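Chapter review: from sequence to fold.
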Amino acid sequence: MGKPSIKGLSSYNRWSPLANLAEEEDQLDRLSNLPDGVLLDIVGRLDITDAATTRILARRWKEIPTMLPKILLTVGPFDDVRNRGLTCDDVARANATVLGATRSMLESRTTSLCTINLLCVRFFLGDGTLSIGQTVANTMVTEKVGSARVNSLHNDVLTYGKQFKSFLDACPNAFSGLARLQLENLRLGESSGIPEIFSICKRLEFLRLFNCDMGFLSLLEVSHPLLRELELVRCNFERVDLKWLPKLTVLTFSWWVSEHDPLSLDYVPLLQTLSITHMARLRHKVLKLSEFLGKTTISHLNLNFLCEKIWVKPEEPNQLWQVFHKLRHVTLTHISEECDLTWTMFILQGAPSLQELCIKVWDHLCEMTVDEQERVKYGLSNEPKDAHILWRAPASDFKHRNLSVLRVFGFQWEAKVVNCVERVMKASAALEDIYLYEKPACEHCKHTAWKRIFLRRNCQRATPANILDMGISLRVRVHLPGLHYFG
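The token string follows.
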């Protein structure tokens, strides 16, 4: 007997269950006839549980999940606020649910000839962790995995640091082939925790540590033959020594606690991009980049001051030449609106190969501590945020030969911002384009506009005529994307 067809159904029975079933079967047949590549793309967009259940749809679909080149195993929501209320039973249930799908997806691939290009595992530390790790470890041993990532999340750094260490010891094969590893909120062993990760994860190319340490104000030494990208964010190390990283190209270093130089770079010959973010407090040392970077030569530099005191010291060109002579792009972001900007010229003086300079001036009010008593409580200075900056203007005949693009965000025709732009224009022989943007929009900041009274002192306005006329005389294109002309 042939299958029902919706052709010829009257208007009376067109929406009957039989008609719906027939239409669904026709659609299923059309899906099943699609090429493998299309079906793989469809299943690859599903979460792990749904992807595993597609095997029961039809014989045609049975092998599709075993051919997926990317497998993302996610246990529960990775929302820090939502996770705080999770109990041990919640974690156990979440792990058990996805463990079944994980086994279904990975253990069914034993006869598949397809390579896993990316295996990503995100989990809660707790009950069920070892079972997931052992399943992944078996896959790493028996199949070819191009790239593997692990991400764990929890709030109790000490308790879950111990659990992660147990997981690492029990499932070393799950880590031996990792290319990417992300760890959050973990305190590992004081002597061997993180170094052991480097020794086990021999294929590691990317590592991100967020709020991790080996004890408060501990020392971290990093050596690895393949690591290419390293992110250290809000980690409570006294100092991080990058001893031997012959392939490291990207380094992100944010929010340190040390009152001294928090980072040293020994052998990082290929380092190109360096991003540093810090909210400097009274106790924090002002850094000399020539000493901070050692013998490193970089091409991209991003410095974020988080609207607080400027924590770099302007230096003479001869001091900066070693680390800046190949510098091509510089971004100085979240400079407080109360700061004078002339000190930024030391970058131009010390980087003869610089091609693009970006300056972002913005007091992000909803993320700042404004109350003076609270600032004292948290160790934030009530002095002007550029009070300690001493900078000597270059000789009047100083010319930069390579800068071609200047971008200024937060441009509001204030005298100090206009003066900074004029200085750069006069000193740059190859300047072609200047982009002047308004400050970024923030819905929350609109409700705290009254705080600007504290932040904007002695604000002086300037007319736009000078900078526009100078651009014409120097044959520099001045772009005003979205900027109110007399803003």
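Two observations follow directly from the output. Residues 216 and 236 are 6 Å apart (CA to CA). Confidence is low (pLDDT under 50) at residues 1-19, 78-82, 447-458.
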